[in-house]
Amino acid sequence: MAGVDMALLEDLSRRGLINQATGDGELTQHLSESRTLYCGFDPTADSLHIGSLVPLLTLKRFQMAGHKPVALVGGATGLIGDPSFKAQERSLNTPEVIAGWVDKLKNQVSRFIDFGCEENAAIVVNNLDWTCDLNVLDFLRNVGKHFSVNNMVNKESVKQRIQREGEGISFTEFSYLLLQAMDFSELYQRYNCTLQIGGSDQWGNITGGVDLARRQYRGKVFGLTLPLVTKADGSKFGKTESGTIWLDAKRTSPYAFYQFWLNTVDADVYKFLRYFTFLVVDEIDAIEDADRQRDGRPEAQGILAREVTRLVHGEEGLAAAERISRALFSGDITDLSAADLEQLRLDGLPSSTLPKDFSGQSLINLLVDAGMAPSGKPVKDALGRSAVLINGEAKGMDSNATPAAVFSADKALSDNYFIVRLGKKKYHLFTLAD
Q1: Which residues of the chain have pLDDT under 50?
Q2: What pTM does this model have?
């Protein structure tokens, strides 16, 4: 079919995005025509995190190459919980909670794939649609009979749980493989979906679906897994001191999101450029070569931060993140908007609410209590050098440097905020009490 990019798998390989594939090399020929593929996203929270970006962007890469992406949100599988390589059983959430999360995830995945293409427009589906009325006898007869328990317990994701002393696995989570396999078989029947993609931890579930589609419908379908993202130092990708990096701007602000990528270490940044951006590989190679020859900080981190923030939060989110970053770096925070300051309150700076009554409080004690210094001496020294800035105004050791004077409502940014800088790098955001 015209318009299908035959170089897709080669590009994915150059990016390091292919971990395993079924079909003994047949997938390349299979993708010479426009195909329908899917990836599943279970609602384990009210937002996806950046670990989901690799499969989301891979769906987009397939669509750009001429294929039709299906994003499956697991309203059914989310009620069960995937045991794959999890140390212990998940806590089960209520159907009402899961349903709310499903709606939010549908909106999120919709931002990454195109629904307006005529020939290969994306769709979003919910596997609860074909499981909610399924009775247990039909499930056991039509799906369960195709699975060998011997093979299921030998899958690495299950085996680790069975062999872990004191843990084991419940029948509920053990059945997850059958539900995900049924998804692939169902999508094959409904949409002629012939490819499932997912993280490398999904290999056992994906091959189960390949087998079921073949047994039920004689379908010729394929599976492709992507590498799980790891960091060079062995620490968990997507985790910071403040917690998980989410795709929802209400949980991780665009500023904090941007800063996460900006702080990527040199050992990871070029791999992440290949995984998380649509820059061509040759361009990324050129960036790496230029950084190698450049004295000082590489430029790759800035490129990565801009590209991924733009993908997830759009031009407006990127502009805000860069504006806040510049303001904090220069110390000129007077032009920050109320929305910018709210981002900083959410997760950009340490923050706290000012007391309603400053009686008996000194400015020194207030800043120490906020965690800006371990004792009063550093604050006192900074005040002596006029190195304490409150909303950009330097404060010294004088009678006007009292909490009531410096934190008066008429001096607040956007009627509510005070940014305090101690020295060159120590910041704290105070908000007025309601």
Answers
A1: 1-2
A2: 0.93
